[in-house]
Design a protein that fits this description.
heterodimer, A: 393 residues, alpha/beta, Aspartate Aminotransferase, domain 1, Aspartate Aminotransferase, domain 2, 2 domains, seven-stranded mixed sheet, 14 strands, globular, B: 126 residues, alpha+beta, Sufe protein. Chain: A, three-stranded antiparallel sheet, 3 strands, 46% helix
């Protein structure tokens, strides 16, 4: 069997060894319920609280400001719905961007139906927002700004520290969906004036099904799930002990190795980008400088996204695309639309996302296979004008 | 992942499409879909004595769109125009051994481009 090249780390990552090692006891002998009073329970409780401490310290927070959730989506939903509940007497306006994840956009759309008003800020062709436009869009009744730390598709890093300072100055809550950034970029909730921050374990070598919401002390966000009163009565449900322990171990590892990982991954990523941009009809999407270390995202004119993914897959390479073909609708990505990629180019996107597990051999395999795949798809493409038109020759 | 959701026939037609390419001396051509919406198919016909003597296609689309385009041309090749115009999207799906529910719409692309090409041929002759 050929060795798989995994270049879809923005979707999810392999569980790292320190996380697995940390989790195993809680999947086997240490199965106590952290709420139980007996020894097994107390041991599990200690594990959760140690993990909370580790996770909080990794983002410059205090442990009592960190609440574990089922993942990034829950953290985003909770932050936005909770902030709306909190702000309903003082305001009705929310500021966000056109390139947020659906876990932010969909709760915002629901709030609009309930009478809240949301301004979705435009982004420039690199995916950057204009801070002056943001400041101008603030109204007297704006109670929440929610802007992602880094974009999942195009890798653009947004100026969340500047937004945080501005929000603080104006007395507006600031939430950031930092799911793609945590573990890969230095994030400090104090220095960046972040009030609410969402993170997900499986984007940095932790397990799936666990995430966290940071809630700055003093912000009385209402509870999200009601029940037995876990997570300081704000998020009930028996704790995912193994998941929480794994998240913390993975985050601690990522933060410890951040510098060396960033150097390695950006080196690989740059080699990949340089190689692929030599292909005619290719362009990079997202900010070339303010960019997640692992993100390499492109438009390859004339080749359709899903077909590229399929051919890569048959060549042992895992990648993803912003183009999805499903019943009745060919949805192109709202992010690509927001950065001004015209149709049908938005259907020709490809995202290769790397992490520290990738090797130079992986990059060379992609650089060898992808041009051949593009040649094949373009040869039968009615929207590709330039090159050979007879398939298989 | 794809191999679990598509039949071997779909994969095979995707990887090795039959009759792919444009035709410079076509007697007729027909298109369907819209590249702006993510799929677009053009079918070219060479007709002799009312029989589709040669056929080819160019496609921009997903896996199912490529496979249905290829299969459409296979089903139409050698048929009389009358018989070829009776090829339905269901025939195409059946010949591929089925398509996932959310990809069934791709087979309509093949049927409508073929019908369009045949109509255009008649219109040109008339």
């Amino acid at each position: 069997m050929m060795k798989k090249v995994y270049a879809d780390n923005a979707a999810t990552t392999r569980l790292c060894k320190p996380a697995l090692d940390a989790m195993l006891p809680y999947l086997t002998n240490e199965y106590g319920n952290p709420s139980a009073l007996h020894a097994l329970g107390r041991y599990a409780k200690k594990a959760v609280e140690d993990a909370r401490e580790t996770t909080a310290r990794s983002i410059g927070a205090r442990p009592e400001e960190l609440y574990f959730t089922s993942g990034g989506t829950e953290a985003d939903n909770w932050a936005i719905q909770g902030a709306a509940e909190l702000g309903k007497n003082t305001g009705r306006h929310i500021l966000s961007t056109k390139i947020e994840h659906h876990a932010v956009l969909h709760p915002l759309r629901r709030l609009e139906k309930q009478g809240y008003e949301v301004t979705y800020l435009d982004v420039d062709p690199l995916g950057q927002i204009d801070l002056n436009a943001l400041e101008k869009a603030i109204r007297d009744d704006t109670f929440l700004i929610t802007v992602m730390a880094a974009n999942n598709e195009i890798g653009t890093i947004l100026p969340i520290a500047e937004i945080g300072h501005l929000a603080k100055e104006k007395g507006i809550l600031f939430h950031t969906d930092a799911v793609q950034a945590i573990g890969h970029l230095p994030i400090d909730v104090e220095a960046m004036d972040i009030d609410l921050l969402s993170l997900a374990g499986h984007k940095f070598g932790g397990p799936k099904g666990v995430g966290a919401l940071y809630i700055r002390q003093g912000i009385r966000l209402p509870s999200y799930i009601q029940g037995g009163g876990q997570e300081r009565d704000l998020r009930s449900g028996t704790e995912n002990v193994a998941g929480i322990v794994g998240l913390a171990a993975a985050l601690a590892t990522s933060v410890t190795n951040m510098k060396i990982n960033t150097d390695k991954v950006s080196f690989l990523r740059n080699r990949l980008i340089e190689g692929l941009l030599e292909i005619p009809g290719s362009r990079l999407t997202g900010d070339p400088v303010q960019r997640l270390p692992g993100n390499a995202s492109f438009i390859f004119e004339g080749a359709e996204g899903e077909s590229m993914i399929m051919m890569l897959d048959l060549n042992g390479i895992c990648a993803s695309s912003g183009s999805a073909c499903s019943s009745n609708s060919h949805e192109s990505s709202h992010i690509l639309r927001a950065i001004g990629i015209p149709q049908p180019l938005a259907h020709s996107s490809l995202r290769l996302s790397l992490n520290e597990e990738n090797t130079i051999e992986d990059i060379d395999t992609i650089l060898e296979k992808l041009p051949l795949i593009l040649t094949r798809l373009r040869a039968i493409s009615p929207v590709w004008g330039g090159y050979g038109r007879t398939f298989g020759t | 992942m794809f191999c679990e959701i598509f039949t071997d026939t779909v994969i095979e037609h995707f990887m090795c499409p039959r009759n792919a390419g444009s035709m410079t001396d076509a007697d007729s051509e027909g298109s369907s879909g819209d590249p702006d919406c993510g799929d677009s198919l053009t079918i070219y016909l060479k007709v002799k004595d009312n029989v589709i003597e040669d056929i080819s296609f160019m496609v921009f689309g997903c896996v199912a769109a490529v496979a249905t385009s290829s299969m459409t041309t296979e089903l139409a090749k050698g048929k009389t125009l009358e018989d070829a115009s009776k090829v339905t999207d269901q025939d195409i799906v059946d010949a591929l051994g089925g398509l996932p529910e959310n990809k069934l719409h791709c087979s309509v692309l093949g049927e409508s481009a073929l019908k369009q090409a045949i109509q255009n041929y008649y219109a040109k002759k008339a």
